[in-house]
Structure formats: structure tokens, C-alpha cells
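Bench notes, afternoon.
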Amino acid sequence: MEFVDRGPLTFVVNNTSIGNIDVYLQSADTGAVYGELEGLGSRASATLSAVLGDGSYEFVCIGADAPVTTGAQVSIANSAARSDLTPGVVPVTRNDLYQPTQQYSAWITAQLPVLAGGVADLATSIQSGDRAAARRSWIAAHVTYETLGAAYGAFGNSDTAINGTPGAGMTAETDPDLTGFHRIESILWSDQQLSAAAPFAAQLVSDVSTLETTFATTRLDPQDVGLRAHEILENSVQEELNGSDDAGSGSTFATIDANIEGTEQAVLPFDPCSPIADSIWPRSTTGSPGRPPSSRAFGAPTDRGLPCRASPQLNANRSTRR
């Protein structure tokens, strides 16, 4: 079937199946997606609009418990030149995400010795009886850890040991099972003897050392990194802004700042995957992302020649996303 483009096109999509479906308007030649409807309910209808140029197009419907259905191809020919054509986005495959994930994993690996040095300084300050120095060392080391948020899922039990929070109905001082940063925080910013923090500081040094060892052989899930990056700031809103994680240091804003850095570090390697990145932060004359300057040196990647093709919002099998 062939017709001439008459400007913006609006399609009415009806779901006649008994379950939810995802609908994609895509190029029949390249698979580039020009429009999508997610989670269209049974017997529901919705509209999808696009401005299409010359080419062949088709609709693809994906149901949760049904085979993929591809509609008839429709071609557009002899359309007038336009500046408002809808851009097509070629879905990113899982393989496309491996190199950026490895780049992020390498950044995490490089931060772990910094964290180890920070907790060692904390333990030394506590042993020397210098509470002011111990407080400074605690904040510096804790901020370092809070930048690693997208990898917490790969840290396993180490995350709980290093940065766990009190159980329900308990505080950092009263929870008998709590260790790590927050247990030490409750001692440093209280009337307790500084020496009470020494065994917890020694345990923290050991736990961070264990994390360094285990992470060296850990592989991050490429699809998990994006999810964790989203959860970093979500947790900041839920647990930091309301002060529920603070055990006396009053370092909430420093923690949130570290969470923001952690989010940037998690998503920056995936910039080449996103056609949106350059429209928000145009390239500088050096070829690196032209973002506004940050309060920290983020170590942003300058090589945008990674194998990603488009936004990671669409995965290889176009499954329903969280």
C-alpha cells in the first residue's frame, strides 16, 4: 500500500485482545521506532501521532502472553520536505550496553581504594581520640560511598554491613545488629565515649576491604545500572530529605550531593546511547559533552564513539519497563 504524506498523521489504536499490549510504529526497513503506546489495556483505544517522511512503515503489537503481531507495511512516497519529521529511534540491544556498563564498573573499581583510604583515616582518627578529625573523616568517607549507588545491588551483603540503617522501631544507637557508617555516626555525634566507635571502625575497614576483593570479580547487569541510577535519587527523596537516615551528623545535603554525583556517573557512560543528550547538553568544541560545570570533577567520558545507537529507554525485546 502506498500513499503520499499529507502532514502529521494520527492513528487510532484499538486493543481487541484480552490483555495489555505495547504498540510500536516502526520503520519496516531499519526497525527505528517513530511512536509507541505502552500498556494499552484490553478493549481500550489510544491515539498515536507522527510526522513521517518517505519510507516503509508498520505497526508491531506485543502482548504479555501473545505472539508478536506485525501489521501490513505501508509506504510513503513523494512527500514534501519538512523540518518537523518525527525522529526514528533504533532500539538499543543488550550488547550495546555492555561497553558503557564496563566503563561504569571501572569507575566504581577506581573509587573503592579511595573509600578504603577514607575509612582507614576514620579509624586512625578514632584511635587517636580526635573527635573533630573523626567527624571530618566520617563525612569524607561516607560521601565517597554515597556516590556508588548504582552498584549497590552488586555489593550484596557488603552494602548492609557498610551503610545499613536501623531496623524498624530502632535507632542507630539502639539497633544491636547495626554496623558501618551509621553506627559510627551515632557515636561520633553523641555524648558516647569516642572509644566506643573503635571496634565498629575496625569492622568497617574490614568490610570495605572485603568489598574491594569481591567486586573485582563481579559483573554488573547492563539493564540494572539504569534502574539503579533512577533509584539513587528516588532514595534521596524518600530517605535523605526527610532526615530518616541521619544519625546525628546533619550531613543530609552532602549525602544528596554525593547521590547526584553518583547518578551522573552512572548515566554518563550511556550518553552515546541517547539521541537526547546532545540536545540538552550540546557538544563542546573539544567533542566532550558540554554540560554546565559541576562542583566536582566527575570524570565524564569524552569518547562518544561507543556502539550504542539510540536511547536505552527501549530494550532489545521491548518488554514492558518498570
